[in-house]
Amino acid sequence: MLSVLHALAAVGIVLLIPLLCRLGNFIWLYFLRPSTAHAYLHAGPAYALITGATDGIGKALAKELYDQGFNLILHGRSEQKMRKVVDEVRGTGARDVLYFLADASDVDHDFERMIAPYANLNITVVVHNVGNQGFTKERIDDGFSKGDVAGIVNRNAIFSLYLTHTLLPRLRLSAKTGPVLVQFMGSLASEICPPRFAIYGATKSFLKALARGLDNDERVWGTPTGVRFEYLVTGQVQSNSMRLKATLDTPTSETYAKAVVGRMGCGRRKYCPYWVHAMQQWFSEVMGETTQDSYSAAAIADLIATHEKKV
Questions:
Q1: Does 6 score more than 60 pLDDT?
Q2: Any long-range contacts for 110-117 (C-beta under 8 Å, 24+ apart)?
Q3: CA 221, CA 233: separation in Å to the nearest integer?
Q4: From CA 247, how far away is CA 301, in angstroms rounded?
Q5: Would you give the end-to-end CA distance of the chain in angstroms?
Q6: pLDDT tens digit string along 123-155?
Q7: d(CA 222, CA 279)
Q8: What confidence category does residue 7 fall into, taking pLDDT thresholds of 50, 70 and 90?
Q9: pLDDT value at position 116?
Q10: What pLDDT shows up at residue 185?
Q11: Distance CA 306, CA 311 (A)
């Protein structure tokens, strides 16, 4: 009898070890690990390039990285909004705040020409933040034209792919003097695939695979270049496109930006920058797909109703 109890105890310990390791990693990453953002401030003036920087997370990231000592290259679609952001950021320091305009829904751009003014700058951080999809009750074949579908895919995935393709030679040059980081803003939608967000979730899964593949290209194929890639799993964040009350599980864009900068360069290719989102992801994994699907359907219905009231 004792031998059986000992065997069960041993099995219990073996099963417990991965959970304890995961708990330890969680505590280290979110509460103990010091920020390493300063590691990307090397070789003279360092620049951070942020797409989708006129509102929400992108705007908050611009301010946070500027406060950390970075010069900025910002992307947006609206000249008026961009000039307002530039003025706000420049009010807190004397470093560069440069910008370029492009509609990310349309990838018929000359990306080489777009990036040419910054070809000689020391770009050490890139955050592909641009992307969104509106809330709708319609299925893709009812409420979306082929142009609408193409716009969502371009805005959330293809624009970032083409821009990265153009930037990589410049980033490898910057990596000769220190680490370089490229981040893709992901979403829990790619993990749980909620209804009415099939296209959006698919584009984020594309970015997740792209980040891993490109990281392998630069890290394990031949001589490492020093350019690393991360995919950031993001839950609900209060912004112009997510007009919700700020709560513990729906942080403000400013709170979320601090979390992103605080975790950057942590060594993981895929992770949640914000600790509550990490817990939500873990619980969604535990509950299984059937429960995930029922819960996400109810949550999306509530979000659609909330946004319809505020339109």
A1: no
A2: 111/162, 111/163, 111/165, 111/166, 112/166, 114/163, 114/166, 115/163, 115/166, 115/167, 115/170
A3: 26
A4: 19
A5: 67
A6: 999 999 999 887 777 888 887 899 999 999 999
A7: 36
A8: low
A9: 97
A10: 97
A11: 9
* Pairing state between β 71-76 and 47-50: parallel
Which token pair is 208? 């997740």
Asked if 277 and 248 count as a contact pair (C-beta separation under 8 A), the reply is: no
Q: Where are the domains of the chain?
A: 37-310
37-310 maps to CATH 2.60.40.10:
no
The model carries a pTM of 0.92
- Per-residue HEC secondary structure of the chain comes to CHHHHHHHHHHHHHHHHHHHHHHHHHHHHHHHCCCCHHHHCCCCCCEEEECCCCCHHHHHHHHHHHHCCCEEEEEECCHHHHHHHHHHHHCCCCCCEEEEECCCCCCCCCHHHHHHHHCCCCEEEEEECCCCCCCCCCCHHHHCCHHHHHHHHHHHHHHHHHHHHHHHHHHHHHCCCCCEEEEEECCCHHHHCCCCCHHHHHHHHHHHHHHHHHHHHHHCCCCCCCEEEEEECCCCCECCCCCCCCCCCCCEHHHHHHHHHHHCCCCCCEECCCHHHHHHHHHHHHHHHHHHHHHHHHHHHHHHHHHHHHC
